[in-house]
Write a structure and sequence with these properties.
The chain is α+β, with helices and mostly antiparallel strands. 26% of the residues lie in helices and 29% in strands. The relative contact order is 0.28.
């Protein structure tokens, strides 16, 4: 009896996200001038239709950090991977969720 090897599942095909779809991303960094602009600039690079009026801001309890929630239109897994890489590599960004 010969067993046919199973093909491993492809996580890119087994996505729970339907594209295109609104996709919120939380970005945290120091509460300094230019931080929100930097996050907005990156959002526009990956979603030309990004609406900056949808940005949500939240200060940390002590005010040292700022949470910025952006909602982009996700068009592919590759786009999401790349925006996360770009955000996390920015020097003003501490955490991306």
């Amino acid at each position: 009896m010969t067993l046919t090897p199973k093909t491993p599942p492809n996580p890119r095909q087994d996505s729970l996200i339907e594209y295109p779809s609104p996709f919120p991303i939380k970005v945290m960094g120091d509460n300094v001038d230019g931080f929100v602009h930097a996050v907005t600039f990156i959002a526009h690079q990956f979603d030309p239709t990004f609406d900056a009026s949808t940005i949500e801001l939240r200060d940390s309890k002590g005010g040292k950090y700022l949470g910025v929630t952006i909602t982009i239109t996700a068009t592919s897994r590759e786009q999401l991977d790349e925006i996360y890489r770009t955000l996390t590599s920015h020097p003003m960004v501490k955490v991306v969720l």
